[in-house]
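User: Please predict the structure of the protein below. I'd like the answer in C-alpha cell form so I can feed it into my own downstream comparison script.

Assistant: Understood. Taking the following sequence of 239 residues as input:
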Amino acid sequence: MPRKPEPTASLKEKTSARTANDIPVIQVEGDVVKRFNEAKDQIEKAKLVIEALAPDLLERGLRAVFKHNIARSGNTDEQISSVRLQDTSGKPAKGQEEKVETVLFTWSKRNNKCNSKNVEAFFKGMSGGFTLGGEKIVRSNYADWVTEGEFDTDVFIDPETKKFDMKRYEAFVAALDEVAKKYKVANPLSVTKVMVPTVDFHTRRFKDFDLNTNVDLTEVLPTTLQLEPERPAPEETEE
C-alpha cells in the first residue's frame, strides 16, 4: 500500500529555503499526474456551478415543503421534510428512453446557531402584527433566551508537561472555586445566555405564518437544508 503524502505544512518547511526551480522533480509512470490535475480542475469548475445553481433549488425545495406543511398545519403526521425536484426540459427524442434528472431536497428541523440581534430585529419588524389565527405576534413564542453552561477544560492541562493532569482534574471536580484560586486561573465553569427556537417552534410556525414569512424566518432561525442527486442504481451485469 503506498504511503500517504506528508502534510503540506511539512513540505513547505522543508522547501521554504529553496526556490521553485530547486525543488526536485520525480518522474511518475503513465499519465497519473495529468489525470489528477484535470480532475482537480473539474472539481473547481463543478464547485462554481453548484454555488450558482444550489440557491435556486434550495429555495424551490424549501417553499414546496413549507407550502405542503402550512396546508396541513393541523396534522403534523401529514407534514413532510423532503421533495424531489425534476427538470422539465431536455426531453428525449422519439424512440429514446426517458431519463429524468432528479435531485432530492431535504429540510431538517435541526436548528443551527442563530444571531440573536437578527432574530430580535425580525420580530421587532412584525410587532403589532397578528398570526394567521389572529393572535398577537410575540417573539418569545418562537425564540427565547436559555442559559447554557460552559467549561474550560484547559485548566486540567499541566503548564509544564502540557498534558492532562489527573490530580488537577480530581481537585477541580472536588472544589472548583478553591482550586481555581490555587492555580491562578478563572473558574472554568461559566454560564451564558443564548437565543434558540422554542420547543414547539416548528409546529407553531406553520399554523401562525404564511409561506413567505416562513421562508424569511429561515434566514434568522436557520435549519439544515440538503440537496442530493438521485439516479437509478447501475444495472448488475452477468459474469
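That's the full C-alpha cell string. Residues 1-15 have pLDDT under 50 and may be disordered.
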